[in-house]
Write a structure and sequence with these properties.
Layout: H1 4-12, H2 18-37, H3 42-50, H4 68-73, H5 78-85
Length: 90
């Protein structure tokens, strides 16, 4: 299962810009609050929120098109990857 510590390791491998880490933290907190409200696993949803823009810095015009395979190779389950990709557009 994806942990918040592992999510932070993974995002650090693809992201360097301070504002993107700040955004990841803000989404993480929001997702944790929603999880708590709905009786879900708070840490899990915080980790999902933290990784939601995994490929954005390197591929802003192809956002989420470079997320699935690397995260599967990093050991995330297909379900966890689907949860991350669910916020996608287009």
């Amino acid at each position: 299962m994806l942990t918040l510590d592992r999510a932070k390791e993974l995002l650090a491998a693809t992201t360097t810009e301070h504002h993107l880490f700040l955004h990841a933290k803000n989404v993480m907190v929001a997702m944790g609050g929603l999880a708590e409200h709905f009786g879900e696993d708070k840490e899990h949803w915080m980790a999902i929120g933290y990784l939601h823009d995994y490929d954005y810095e390197k591929h802003p015009d192809e956002h989420l098109q470079h997320t699935e395979q690397p995260l599967l190779e990093a050991g995330l389950s297909a379900g966890e990857v689907r949860e991350i990709l669910a916020h996608g557009y287009g």
